[in-house]
Amino acid sequence: MKKAQGFTLVEMLMALAIGSVTLTVGVNSMQDLVTRQRVDAYTGNILQSIHSARQHAILKHQPVTVCASEDGQTCNDNWSTGHLLFIDHNGNRELDENDEILNHINGSSPKDPVHWRSFRVADTLQFLPTGMTSHQNGTFTVCGLGKADHARAVIITKMGRPRMSTDSNGDGIDEGADGRPLRC
């Protein structure tokens, strides 16, 4: 007589349970990886825009303003919708008819809000022809999924030099210019 081959019901349920747990852990890890990559990419776009704005201010000997903008034609107060760089001929921090638009960067993912906080509590960032900011240092924070553990920041000194935030203490959360963990 031949012996029956196969798995028992208990063995199948155990295999299914182990597979489910493994898959759940894998999907969460993958989601974290994708979120971090998305935040890193957009934070890199902000850093590149800041470098570009500073360089244009120096080379063209004109103030360059960076403002939040969704459509690339007007400024608004929501940095998550994108940002605009323009030569601000009269230095009033507003996009006027005679100002020259340099670049428009589309916004981040709606899941990843962007915040700008500055010393002078200005809605815009302005570089003078010297490459320095207009007496403002500040931080752009990109909050992946709105959470601090997925946040990255671009920190700008009064001298106009931008740098990326780092996790200096190894706790998995980047610190801001003050050495404290980023907040979202």
Mean pLDDT reading: 91
Number of distinct beta strands? 8
Tell me the number of structural domains: 1
Largest sheet: 4 strands, antiparallel
Strand content bin: 15-25%
Overall description:
By secondary structure, this protein is an alpha+beta fold. The protein has one domain (10-164): minor pseudopilin epsh fold, CATH 3.55.40. 28% of the residues lie in helices and 22% in strands. The chain has 1 helix and 8 strands, in the order H-E-E-E-E-E-E-E-E. It has one helix at 9-60, and strands at 64-68, 82-87, 100-106, 114-118, 125-127, 138-143, 151-156, 162-164. Strands 3-2-1-5 form a 4-stranded antiparallel sheet, covered by helices on one side. The radius of gyration is 23 Å and the shape is elongated. The relative contact order is 0.14. The model has no long low-confidence stretch (mean pLDDT 91).
Keywords:
1 helix; about 180 residues; alpha+beta; minor pseudopilin epsh fold; about 30% helix
What is this structure's SSE topology?
Elements: H1 9-60, E1 64-68, E2 82-87, E3 100-106, E4 114-118, E5 125-127, E6 138-143, E7 151-156, E8 162-164
What is this structure, in a nutshell?
The chain is α+β, with helices and mostly antiparallel strands. It has one helix at residues 9-60, and strands at 64-68, 82-87, 100-106, 114-118, 125-127, 138-143, 151-156, 162-164.
